[in-house]
Specification:
Layout: H1 8-18, H2 24-32, E1 35-36, E2 39-40, H3 41-48, H4 52-55, E3 65-73, E4 81-89, E5 95-101, H5 109-120, E6 124-128, H6 141-150, H7 153-168, E7 173-182, H8 184-196, E8 202-206, E9 223-230, H9 232-235, H10 238-247, E10 252-261, H11 274-292
Parallel strand pairs: 5-6, 5-7, 7-8, 8-9, 9-10
Antiparallel strand pairs: 1-2, 3-4, 4-6
């Protein structure tokens, strides 16, 4: 089913479901009460659920990369240990490093694929699994979302911070670090920029929550902010965030992609916008090449 075949009310319900406002059963129940031109809203809703196998763009056996899972210490986090998906380009390093931060449901196959895309572009990529202290990504987004919600959120961000530090000092890294994240991960990129100061050299938040104005002075990393046009919750934060960035002379660039919805980069659901996602990723890689080398 194509995006234009899905009623806006279904997209709105899906957004509420993705962000934990309602569970899967309630999402499908409310969607089922809607019918448009003889098409059940339930059919539209089911079309929005992710199909990760169909969305893979780079195989884990691709000869251009080497991928494996690693564990590392995470003091102050949810368990003191973390696990992540490390992907390095084939060939000799060291490489500029990019942390790839998942949405609000753990390290799912889409985020692993993004890490492989970053490695193919020449970056040492680490995609941490924030759910590792609770047993790891469970294999489906519904359980993953519930698990992530139950974690101590401050400690979860500490786990991401420790992941960034682990990657920056990895033997295959050249000491320059960038971060890209999506939804919750996008907000976490902003948080890391405000927390790490000069230890983060570049950040690319995709439709992520802004940090508070009083945290902006700590940001040193140039930010490339990727925004969907139809994303009222996130976009409502932008005016205050931009005002603070300007007031403190920060380096930033924002792109608002016309006709897109929150999640437009995720190619596993019909919210995906191929043209916008391709352009946004090209800009992401260019941003990292500019500031990471």
């Amino acid at each position: 089913m194509n995006p234009q075949d899905i009623d806006q009310r279904i997209f709105d319900l899906y957004d509420e479901y993705c962000h934990g406002g309602i569970d899967r059963r309630e999402f499908l129940k409310r969607a089922g009460a809607i019918t448009v031109a003889g098409v059940s809203g339930l059919t539209m809703a089911q079309a929005l659920l992710p199909r990760y196998a169909q969305a893979q763009t780079i195989s884990f056996t691709d000869e251009r990369i080497k991928a494996n899972y690693i564990e590392y210490d995470s003091p102050g986090g949810n368990s003191g240990r973390m696990r992540g998906y490390l992907v390095r380009p084939s060939g000799e390093g060291p490489f500029p490093a990019v942390l790839v931060i998942h949405e609000n449901r753990g390290l799912n196959p889409y985020i692993e694929d993004v890490a492989r895309r970053a490695a193919v572009a020449g970056f040492l990529a680490l995609a941490p699994d924030g759910l590792f202290p609770a047993g790891g990504y469970p294999g489906n987004d519904d359980d993953g979302r519930a698990m992530q919600r139950e974690l101590d959120q401050a400690k979860l961000k500490t786990d991401m911070l420790n992941s960034a530090r682990t990657l920056k000092t990895h033997e295959a890294a050249n000491g320059k670090l960038g971060a890209v994240g999506f939804c919750w991960g996008g907000g976490t990129v902003n948080h890391l920029a405000a927390t790490m100061g000069g230890d983060l050299q570049a950040g690319v938040p995709f439709y992520g929550a802004s940090v508070s104005a009083d945290a902006v002075p700590n940001i040193e990393a140039p930010l490339l902010i990727q925004s969907a046009e139809d994303d009222p919750r996130i976009n409502a934060m932008w005016p205050d965030f931009e005002a603070a960035l300007k007031a403190h002379g920060k380096t930033y660039e924002r792109h608002l992609y016309p006709g897109t919805r929150h999640g437009f980069h995720n190619n596993s659901t019909p919210r995906y916008d191929e043209q916008a996602a391709k352009l946004a990723w090209e800009r992401t890689i260019a941003h990292f090449r500019t500031y990471l080398g």
